[in-house]
Amino acid sequence: MIECVYCNERYDNDEIIYNCKKCGSVLEVSLDVNVSKDIFESRKDTLWKYKEFMPVDESKIVSLDEGGTPFCKCEKLSKELDVELYVKVEGSNPTGSFKDRGMSVGITKAMELGVDIVGCASTGNTSASLAAYAARAGFRCIVLLPSGKVALGKLAQAMFHGAEVLSVNGNFDEALEVVTQLALEKHLYLLNSINPYRLEGQKSIGFEIIHELGWESPDRIILPVGNAGNISAIWKGITEFYNAGYMKDKPMMTGIQAEGACPIVNAFRKNSRDMIPVENPETIATAIRIGAPVSSIKALSAIYDSNGYSETVTDDEILSAQKELAQKEGIGVEPASAASIAGLKKLVNQGEIDKGEKIVCVVTGHLLKDPQTAIDACAKPTQIDADIEKLRSILMKKPN
Ligand code: F0G
């Protein structure tokens, strides 16, 4: 069943619906799974390893082997911050972000429903992922992007996989509003995270974290928050595994936003469950440049129900955490993803995070998604002749 998270009104699984008809709130798929966790052990390392928890028809699966992403312990940062830090590297998904998990399940649902056209509004990654999965499934694909505010790699992917790319004079929130209207008029099947099937795929990040840690919960999961789908999805996954009896504890869900785009943090600071929109969101982390997240009610519940936290970070803190992760641990992520590491550092400094906590930071997208920001953050390459003497003299010098 599909269920309203606010008034609990229920809808059939095959109804194409994005908001509750009774109260207008967001929806989620409710399911009741009763299997032993042993069945997951011998299966291939993709999100479909947990197929019993994916409420779609198995014979229609559209997959690029998403999920099963690296789970890396960060020894240097752990030592510096006096915590036990792991990062879940979502940039290793087929199109380079966690969106592929949601898109695999969402497009599978679209196959089941027999739709022709799929679409989304996006700050970039959703469009890249949708374009690829729509190509694989054979759907016409329309994506709406905020003009001039989408990182180069993402734009290249959406265009190259054959999506019809519409560059909207407006921000993400405005683009989402118009594409939702198109979907309500049944011109296309909407694959933003307001579609509850998207989040069913993304909850597998939570599954994998628990499985990787030997069926134990970390103390805390930290991740960047934009449209607020992913934190909601991971919490749903954690709750499902907990209810299935696979582990004994649950983590504190910790959502990080950019200072210039922080409607969830604004609500958290007032202890409210209603987000406080930001009219003109702005941040270098364009992926999370969002002022009115559609899944705010779910995200704030996840934070409060898990005894979690929410905090902002500045663009400078994001860029320096991005560089630190790349240069100390060898993990290249896009700016929005580094908000999780920047948030971790800030919360350690504030004393909000205890010494020795076991922490998982979800790093959501690959460094190459936004090559321009990476290049701008570095000194220019040294231009030299192919001359052995000159090369020797450079090697003798100490690097800066
Ligand atoms: N990190 C990256 C790299 C993202 O692309 C996004 C969202 C987020 C974090 C935030 O996740 O929205 O579930 O809270 N990107 C969307 C897009 C909005 O259109 O690609 P969220």
Question: How many beta-strand elements?
Answer: 13
- The end-to-end distance, rounded to whole angstroms, is 59 Å
The DSSP helix count reads: 14
The unreliable regions are: none
What can you tell me about this protein's structure?
With 400 residues, the protein is an alpha/beta fold. Strands 4-5-13-10-11-12 form a 6-stranded mixed sheet, with helices on both faces. It is globular and about 70 Å long. The model has no long low-confidence stretch (mean pLDDT 97). The chain binds ligand F0G. Ligand F0G binds next to helix 3, helix 8 and helix 12.
Which helices and strands occur, and which strands form pairs?
Blueprint: E1 2-4, E2 10-11, E3 27-29, E4 71-73, H1 75-81, E5 84-89, H2 99-113, E6 117-121, H3 125-137, E7 140-146, H4 152-160, E8 164-168, H5 172-184, E9 189-190, H6 196-202, H7 204-212, E10 220-224, H8 229-243, E11 252-258, H9 263-269, H10 296-305, E12 309-313, H11 315-329, H12 335-349, E13 358-363, H13 371-376, H14 388-396
Helix pairs in contact: 2-3, 2-6, 3-4, 6-8, 7-8, 8-10, 11-12
Bound molecules: ligand F0G.
